[in-house]
Amino acid sequence: MIQLLVNFLELVLSVFYRNRFYPRFYLLETISRVPYFAYLSVLHLYESLGAWKQADWIKVHFAESWNELHHLRIVEALGGGKHWGDRFIGRIGVLGYYWTLVFVYMFSPRSAYHFNQLVEEKAYHTYDKFLNENETELKTQPAPQIAIDYYRDGDLYMFDDFQTSHLLSERRPKIENLYDVFVAIRNDEMEHLKTMMTCQRLDAKEVLKSPHSPEFQPPV
Ligand SMILES: [Fe+2]
Ligand SMILES: [Fe+2]
């Protein structure tokens, strides 16, 4: 059922945004942030009520949403959100998706994580296909400044903090052109996918830690 819904959403995007890559990515990234925001809202509430002590999860989900925010800013810098119609669709989608996921997460965190795992998997394949089909052209275009700042020249604490599948500082994207930027975004989506899978494990509370936590070990 969940897989069917994700496939349907992908079909709608690929039909209506067939050759409008950046508006499509704009919508994808606008929506991609929402699950993390929903998880954060619920975990924050639980933590404030004294019912949840896993503060690391709040940190990791915030770093994931911060990463998606930068994907969105990069796509905006490429003109992805310049038409009001695309922004309108994205914002309506955010409202419905956010409240749905808040309730799903309250009743079944594992279902909410599984749904987002499938969305992240689609995002990974969307960017991978885009890279394969447009490699030559992308390599001739410059990287947006926001991508250089986020992936290369800025403080990389937040970049490291959402990558729970490997040791701290292990991944440092090279950013020389637009192709490199989309490689970095695609690989970020794979990191999100892996974290979503870890969150569904029975021992998730023990294994999911912020990479900056002294207790952090990449899950096996
Ligand atoms: Fe993304
Ligand atoms: Fe993602």
Summarize the structure.
The protein has 220 residues and is mainly alpha-helical. It has helices at 2-16, 21-32, 34-48, 55-77, 84-107, 109-139, 145-153, 157-161, 178-199, 204-207.
List keywords for this structure.
mainly alpha; Ferritin; globular; 220 residues; binds fe (ii) ion
Descriptive notes:
The chain is mainly α. It has a single domain (2-207), classed as Ferritin (Up-down Bundle). The chain is 73% helix and 0% strand. The chain is built from ten helices and no strands. The chain has helices at residues 2-16, 21-32, 34-48, 55-77, 84-107, 109-139, 145-153, 157-161, 178-199, 204-207. Helix 3 runs antiparallel to helix 4, helix 3 packs across helix 5 and helix 4 runs antiparallel to helix 7 (145-153). The longest helix has 31 residues, at 109-139. The protein is globular, with a radius of gyration of 17 Å. The two termini are 29 Å apart. The mean pLDDT is 93. It binds fe (ii) ion (FE2) (2 copies). The site of one fe (ii) ion has 6 residues, from helix 6 and helix 9.
Question: Layout of helices and strands, plus pairs?
Answer:
Blueprint (H helix, E strand, L loop, with lengths): L1 H15 L4 H12 L1 H15 L6 H23 L6 H24 L1 H31 L5 H9 L3 H5 L16 H22 L4 H4 L13
Helix pairs in contact: 1-6, 2-4, 2-5, 3-4, 3-5, 4-7, 5-6, 6-9
Bound molecules: fe (ii) ion (2 copies).
One fe (ii) ion (FE2) binds next to helix 2 and helix 4.
How many structural units, i.e. domains? 1
Present as ligands are: fe (ii) ion
Helix content: over 70%
> Which second-level CATH architecture applies?
Up-down Bundle
**Fold-level CATH name:** Ferritin
Considering the protein shown, what is the CATH homologous superfamily?
Alternative oxidase
